[in-house]
Amino acid sequence: MRRIALVLVTVAIASVSLATAADPASAHAAIESTDPANGQLLEEPPSQIVLRFTEPPDLELTIVGVVNGSGATVPTGPPERPPGSNREVRVRLDPVPDGVYTVTWRTVSATDGHVTAGAFSFGVGVSPGDVTPVEQTGSGTPTPTAGAIAGRWMLYVGLVVLFGAAVTGLLAFGPKANARPWLLGAAWVLAALGVVAMTLAERSSVGVPLGTLLSSEAGGKFVLLAVAVAIAGVAALAAALRPGRATLTALGVTAAGAMLARAAGGHAAGSSVTVATQWLHFLGVGAWIGGLVWLVVGLIQRLEPAQVRRYSQLAAVGLVVVVVSGVLRSTNELGWGWLLHPLQSDYSTTLVVKLTIVAALIALGAVNRYRNVARFEQRGPRPVLRTAGGELALAVCVFAATALLTGLPPQPNAEAPHAPRPLVVRGSDFATTTRVELRITPGTVGPNAFAASVTDYDTGQPVDARRVSLTFELAGQPNVTSTLELEPGHHDTWEASGTALAQQGAWTVTVLVEGAGSSVEVPLEVTPKPPDQHIDVSRVPGQPDLYTITLEGGVQIQSYVDPGEPGRTNQVHVTAFDADGKELPLRGVTLTIHPPDAEPFEPEMLRFGPGHLAANIDLTPGTWSFDIAAHPKDGTELVASFQQTFSG
Fold it and tell me: Residues 301, 175: one domain?
């Protein structure tokens, strides 16, 4: 018995060292990015639509549809996988006319077999304001059905009882003590019905014929599970007819094989490390809870005190394995930070409920081990049996919570990435001859894209202008002024990008429209929105001030001026980090610097790492403003800004 315990604990320690090195799992094929992005304006129609997922999608079970603004279906090619990426799906798209288009998608994760769905929109040759990003409320992973939950519950209970029969028969009670064909048969039937219910629930969720599902990559895992359970059924029959060490060993091996097949088709399937950890968790539950079933049945038939003590030791080892592997699996799915916000999602809330029940189950087990088993010879089996019955009742609830948990996404459903909504201002000249609509995207302090529509006030027709420019003036600061020349753009607009709106406040933007023989000025009032950011400043004597700017979604920009001493050359460092604190690779950084008494400038950026760039500047005393536009490789833009005062 001690050798077995040593082996199991050694395996648990090895699992700890491996699993702690694994990254948090994504679980479910959630949308990561799309091309075009949600709410994006395109000047030319795209030739294809690309969706990138957090897990490899099953191509045979993926559906992508496109409809135009009137709801008519737009023909597309079949979903296909681009070369070199198993997490992307693309569909070919013939040239489409100008308008707004909505893309709907549904897929099944080839990793864990769960269904996800969603939608996003984009515009071709239309005003950016006409493209409304699709809200993702109600999309993502469908709610687990009662059939799926019941199927997983039956599978887990059946396999645990089968494995418990083998391990307790070999290590605690003896082969003859577990020779109960009715219980072995009931456990196998329960597991088999669970496989059938899970498969039918998956077919219903995916919405395809059963044959199509089973021939797909995701459906193949259900076939593998069914075969493994069938083999375990043969071993259970042999153990029932000819109980002995050989048949119980075969039962334990085949039941463990079926558990491995389930682990490889669930949330843990992202890597071999997490599959091994989940499998170890199943085995620990089988030894502990599965053995508990056979303990209760055996107590009715008068087990000997030595047999009860051996089970108690086996259950203690199984409990250690369950706790260690369970902690590793939960942190792998959610990261360690979930402990600070345990009710942030359906998954974590269900996990809290499960852990609460497990804690009560462990408490009852401790009562049995340290009180009732120790006094078994004096008080008989009744106290052990009564407490074990309470443990089984709680175990039934634990399996129900587990069945629900494995159907939920560990992370909240992600919304389709979308383009920012613009800030729109309108006005006309004093004589009411010309009307201007100016769209500023994203409309925050810092870098922006400007698009001006210049039309006749009475007819609404585009004005035949030769030159359009914007002059920016900040209220209360006469020295803060700049001019931006616009270039002819798409659909009679005048467009340019710049960082003129460099500070928070009320700006007067004067639109100068020059025609063939005259010109007009249209004044507009613009108040840019502050960047959606939170700034933390770390000041340590002898070191430069470190500005940590947290943006939407937990992404961070860290920046500092080194050494921060005027009168000499300094380096401005910019580093991007993702929500998990890892360096975020960037295609580049546009850094716009506003000195206290000089024109803004954009220095050349030097690359120090995948997400770390820096620039050399000559620093002077005064308050400097830094506008950062970082460009990750997924095509998005991270905008941040901060001010720092340097004393001479």
Answer: yes
Number of C-beta neighbours around residue 250 at 10 A? 19
- The span from the CA of 447 to the CA of 445, in Å, is 7
User: Which residue segment(s) compose the domain that 35 sits in?
Assistant: 31-130
- In angstroms, the CA 544 to CA 195 distance is 61
Say if 234 falls within a structural domain.
yes
Q: Which helix (H) or strand (E) holds 450?
A: strand 448-456
β-pair type (546-551, 533-538) = antiparallel
Residue 410 confidence class, pLDDT cut points 50, 70, 90: low
DSSP code of 71?
Answer: S
Altogether, the residues listed in the chain come to a count of 648
For tokens 């209220």, what's the residue? 475
Q: Return the biggest CA–CA distance within the chain.
A: 113
Domain boundary residue, one of 374, 405, 436:
405
In sequence order, what are the residues at sequence separation of 6 or more whose Cβ sits closer than 8 angstroms to the Cβ of residue 374?
A: none
Residues 183 and 277 in one domain: yes
- Tell whether 588 is covered by a domain: yes
At 561, is the secondary structure helix, strand, or coil?
strand
Exposed e or buried b for every residue in 52-71, given b needs 16+ CB within 10 A?
Answer: bbbbbbbbbbbbbebbeeee
User: 18: burial class by Cβ within 10 Å (0-12, 13-18, 19+)?
Assistant: middle
Q: Which two tokens stand for residue 612?
A: 């770390």
196 belongs to a structural domain: yes
CB 634 within 8 A of CB 614: no
Distance CA 494, CA 484 (A): 11
The residue out of 96, 130, 164 marking a domain boundary is 130
Sole residue written with tokens 């609830």: 397
pLDDT at 318 over 50: yes
- On whether the pTM is more than 0.70, the answer is no
Q: CA-CA distances (angstroms) from residue 190 to 76, 155, 171, 328?
A: 44, 6, 25, 29
Window from 12-16, 60-64, 522-526 with minimum mean pLDDT: 12-16
Distance CA 600, CA 618 (A): 13
Say whether pLDDT at 84 is over 90: no
DSSP type of residue 6: H
